Amino acid sequence: MNILFERIKLLLSGDGRSAIVGRNVMASFLIKGVSIIVSFFLVPITIGYINSELYGVWLTVSSVMMWIHFLDIGFSQGLKNKLTEALAQEDYEKGRQLVTTTYVMLVVIFIPVCFILELLVPHINWVHLLNVNESYSKDVINVMHVVIGVVCLQMIINIIVSVIAAFQKVALSNSFGVIGNILSLIIIIVLRETCPPSLLALAITLTVMPTLVTLIASVVLFKGKFNMVAPRLGCFNKNCINELFSLGYKFFIINIQVLVLYWSTNILISHVSSPEEVTRYNLAYQLLSVAMMAYNIITAPLWPAYTDAFARGDYVWMKKMRSKMQKILFLSVLGCFMLVVLSPLIYKIWIGNKVSIPLEMTLLVGFYVSAYCWMTLNGTFIVGMGKIKIETIIVIIGMILHIPASLFFGKYIGAYGVVVSLFVINLFYAIVMNFQVDMLLNKTAQGIWNK
Fold first, then answer.
1. Helix (H) or strand (E) holding 233
2. I need a surface site. Which of 202, 249, 306, 395 has the fewest CB within 10 A?
3. How far apart, in Å, are the Cα atoms of 30 and each of 37, 168, 186, 189?
4. What residues contact 233, with CB distance under 8 A and at least 6 apart?
5. DSSP 302-318
6. Would the pTM of this model clear 0.85, i.e. be above it?
7. For the chain, how long is the longest CA-to-CA vector?
8. What is the tens place of the pLDDT at every residue in 354-391?
9. Cα(first)–Cα(last) distance of the chain, in Å?
């Protein structure tokens, strides 16, 4: 045991790339551990504040939030790679120009977007689109007004998350959501005891708190730790737009695919089945996403680390890290299916008799989560190197197929059909990306496989 502790201490000590990743992973596990505990309390308390149907309506409405997230045309993710490269070269002036230019571009994009969408909200038939009860029509419109305003603000201030990642301090940004959720939990407990159920009050609580935390963190960090790249109006550089966009537009396509595949899931399930099925799917997903979350905690710090290693030509480190990640993937998949087996007991303890979740739903989500983790193993490596041409192509294929496949399977097996489509498409991604990573590491990738 002492030998194990000594090896962990050695791994986490020093300033090397592996030590930085290790410290981020350990800190992220602690932060996510708190996040899981808060989320597990938040779900039953929220359902207790409103009800299962209204909670399903909120989950469906909140999915629309993610549509707006991808209108930055990949600028934030392009910033993560380009800023990491600038920091590797200790070019802080270039870093400041990249950060400033990204802020300016997102302000130019999202202020008009917010204005236009707010005008459109009352003219959209949300009841038909989201398949919710007519009695919720006014509530949904009011909630959409709030959601659009808050998310557009989030898109601008969330640039700090990319900056933090470029400095390889991913664990720091993970804490923002946890603090926001803790504040939301406290407010919902107060609302449950003092106010009647309100979809609008719930929406304000769950969206404003995380945004406020990120805004405060941005001001503090740019005045302190990240001052050397803090945005300055005079540092806007139009040449950086092309540099960010050359990589960013590919991330934009990938992000649109994320929207179609993952964040349209609640809407598709609600459409082919009902809001109650949205609640069942999300509860199964929240349980099994513990395994996904654990794997993502480890892979998240690797994106900027791979970018740094590629910029320095350190293929030996990348090969060793990938080998370790394959072993961790096996453990994550094993953990996922242990949760499937134990799910009836966990649901009983967690949510009692409030919602009934079929084992079939949990098992299908387990297959989907496992395929997603395998895809993430290879996808993190690919985006870190910026070799995303093939990924851009295959996600377009997945994006085109997912909605028709979900609607087709949904005719016969309802909500399960949407999850089946998610599993098959993620498995396809994982296989193709695995092939590309093998070639990249062996320096045999040619043509579009190396772009």
1. none
2. 249
3. 11, 17, 21, 24
4. 100
5. HHHHHHHHHHHT-HHHH
6. no
7. 66
8. 778 888 999 999 999 999 889 988 888 888 787 888 88
9. 45
